[in-house]
Amino acid sequence: MVANRIKKHEVFRSDRIKVTEKILRDLRAETVLEIGSGDYSFDYLKDNRKLIWIKADFSPPCDIICDFNSANLILPFSGGAFDLIICTEVLEHLLWPQQLLKEVNRVLSIDGKALFSVPNISSLSYRVAWLFGHIPSCAATGNLPLELGRTAYRRANGEVIGGHVIDFNRKRILELIKHTGFRVIDTKGSGIIWHKQIFPHWVVPVSLASNIICLATKEGQMLTRGC
After folding, report:
1. Hey, what long-range contacts does 12-17 have (CB within 8 A, 24 or more apart)?
2. Would residue 196 count as lying in a domain?
3. What is the pLDDT of residues 6-38, one digit of tens each?
4. Cβ atoms within 10 Å, residue 33
5. CA-CA distance, 196 to 83, in Å (whole number)?
6. Bridge partners (DSSP) listed for residue 161
């Protein structure tokens, strides 16, 4: 477990946020688990609904502190405890994202939905960056110093941790989600973001967007409904 408070990056209202909001507003849930909510939580979408909304992260502010970066991760929740699980911009920080996804599958209810998003290393802007010999800001950086690895975070004691360790494109995130027992039912892009919103999400193919947003359900749920 990580007890130190982490200095988070500032998050602006890009199309990643707006598209995610639209998906979440269209869902119905009574119990929600939000993973990696420290720098930006969607809990304001509760409005006046009486939802159980639990926020888990590796440091405050959150309800549950949990180190997701473990090959033997077990989330501290019972099976099928949540109707909706939100996990945005987390998987790229983990050495074993498949273990977190397996646990998400376990604690998701049989009719529940899970929403994941990751930065897209194959986005249009990052392809241009690679072309001109630049390493994109979202590329895997491990625990390099902040000036060399901009996806890292700094602990209160000055230690730098938590940079991106895995690069995702559309194919890889869809394969990982399927590998861990889910079926993707919707995939959206965030448009092109480069310090600001350059192109809106509706004009950019998902495979070229800066972020890929996936809504998934348990594979067994879909198979049951198809019988």
Report:
1. 12/196, 14/190, 14/191, 14/193, 14/196, 14/197, 15/190, 15/191, 15/193, 15/197, 15/200, 15/201, 16/88, 16/117, 16/190, 16/193, 16/210, 16/211, 16/213
2. yes
3. 445 556 789 999 999 999 999 989 999 999 987
4. 27
5. 33
6. 153
Calculate mean pLDDT across residues 193-201: 93
The CATH number that applies at residue 68 is: 3.40.50.150
Cα–Cα distance, 114 to 101 (Å, whole number): 10
- pLDDT category at 172 given cuts 50, 70, 90 is very high
Token readout for 6 is 């982490």
* Residue 151 resides in a domain: no
Q: Are strands 6-7 and 153-155 parallel, antiparallel or unpaired?
A: antiparallel
**Residue at 78 is within a domain:** yes
What is the reported pTM?
0.89
